[in-house]
Amino acid sequence: MKITEKEFLAPGHRACAGCGEPIGVRLALKVLGENTIAVSPTGCLEVITSPYPETAWEIPWIHVAFENAGAVASGVEAALKSLGRKSNVVVFAGDGGTADIGFQSLSGAMERNHDIIYICIDNEAYMNTGVQRSGATPYGASTMTSPAGKKSFGEDKPKKNLPMIMVAHNVPYVATASISYPEDFMKKVKKASETEGSSYIHLHQPCTTGWGFDPSKTIELGRLAVETGAWILYEVENGDFKVTYRPAQRKPLIEYLKAQKRFKHLKEAEVAMLQDYVDRTCSEYGV
Amino acid sequence: MVLKIATANRAVAEAAKLSNVNVIPVYPITPATSIAEYLAKFVADGEMDAEYVRVESEHSAMSVAIGASSTGARVFTATSSQGLALMHEVLFIAAGMRAPIVMANANRALSAPLSIWNDQQDSISERDSGWIQIYAENAQEALDFVIQSYRITEHPEVLLPAMVCLDGFILTHTVEPVDVPEKEVVSDFVSTYKPANAILDPENPMSIGTFTDPNYYMEARHDMYNAMINSKNIIRNVNKEFGEIFGREYDFVENYRCDDAEIIIVAMGSVCGTVKDVIDEIRREGEKVGLLKLRVFRPFPTDEINAVVKNADKIAVLDKNVSFDIGGALYNEIKAKLDVDAYGFIIGLGGRDVTPEHIRKIVKETKKPEKDVQWIGLREEEI
After folding, report:
1. Strand B342-346 versus strand B373-375 pairing type
2. CATH class for the domain made up of B253-375
3. For chain B, where are the alpha helices, taking DSSP H only?
4. Per residue in B133-192, pLDDT tens?
5. What are the residue boundaries of the structural domains of chain B, listed by start?
6. Global pTM?
7. Which residues of A are less than 8 Å from B200 in CB distance?
8. N or C end of chain B: smaller count of CB under 10 Å?
């Protein structure tokens, strides 16, 4: 795959050292190119890239509020159509702005099948406000609002299955991806850009601050998630499901869990329960 | 000139059709629903070349509007009451992002208790959102004000969104003769939207809606404050030009028999029709009463109001809204900005009829006021 050296997200933004989010944005924009308009809801990405009077965006970019990126992108797309202009319209949104507060707006945009690419960059909690759980927080993770304690082992429900909810919206192209598998992700962005109508890509992104690992290990953590089956890479093209990366041999989940502070409280029985959940999910998805 | 028999909802939909609108994101709500329906039909029949976005909520309607406006499209939407309240967050953002959106608001009471009927609590509660607010007395004004609003909002010295307010049911569902101007004439008047502000364009990339620290936030709000002040000149000029072309001239206020009046009633919207009739009757009985109809509520035309009311003995301010414990918003603003002997009357909440008898009572109470603020038209029996 030929990858341009040109960058559309400038360095010097204010992401934490080791943050995976700008990696996702940079890779996606390398595929989409300069004729692209980006939309972001409120969240880490908005705050780190746009402290007035600075901006890290080399392409047109708009932020309006937390819960309405789907609608704002719909408006951008409708305007382009009405004015006879052509550009990619891409949303870069966090998991809170997608799975929780932005869910209705996303559902509306996908149901209307606007020609937009919605990329949820999922770091599995509200990291901008200091690590509170979201609907995308995984089973067993300790966050500031799902803390582990005497009577709690952390988040007590598995993560909301956003990509499959998008499949249920008949979105023409739905995929999962990881920043640690750049070629797989970029191929999916390419397919999304060639799709007429809506595309949804759910991009898994390790967060050094919220997950609790050394900033040098970001890519490693993303790989461990996929190699243990905690995160599965697949795409659903016009309803046809296909796993795009299958680990030769799945590693035990504990290797992924023990590398992060958010899971360090888990007892053996709880790890076994989480392993069982991952096994069942992998078997369901054929991994 | 084409005279049509139309409701105010039909009139504002016609106005949007005439105004070269590109994008219409709209969500149905009583009593604004037929605006959404007329526009859908115009687009479906090819009478209107616009993108109609069937959003899933009013919050999304305004969010689509901001996205489209920021991309360079001219936008129209309509809502009412709970819908406007749901938009609250994004109304402030539309104004702060200086998006020249035009919206019709069918004035309706806010829940609870749930009421679909008219008062003006919904738009009054958004008075600090940074939107220009214009109140129509009839369907003709509703149509004219939408057309005018595009010229006002899109002016580089303004760039604030505008809300045209029409009383729910009283205007939205009542048919009247309306002069619907020719498309070419309106098209020349409003032209097409040429963004003077930030715009999303890959040829000239900009970041819009950025995060701002205490070093800049206050300046952004101050700019909006100045823009609202500047809008007065623009509104005045647009009124004048509109009058020359369309033959109907409007001012910030309408002076109805105020010049020698001892008591002046100040009101907004459809109730002004009733008040004018009552004033004619009372004047025949020898009492000097006048009406100051406030057309533009934001910006607040202090000087224009003062010029009309300064020689009156007493002012009666009618409010179809209430700020609890201190009376109606218009009453309080008049008390705050003008040196007049004013009394506040809360009327017509949740669709309670405002009758000629009520207006007579208000005049009587104003002559010998017992209280600063009175509620008029309450049931007398216990319920």
Report:
1. parallel
2. alpha beta
3. 8-18, 33-44, 58-70, 81-96, 121-124, 139-153, 183-190, 217-246, 271-284, 302-309, 329-337, 356-367
4. 999 999 999 999 999 999 999 999 999 999 999 999 999 999 999 999 999 999 999 999
5. 2-246, 253-375
6. 0.98
7. 37, 60-62, 76
8. C
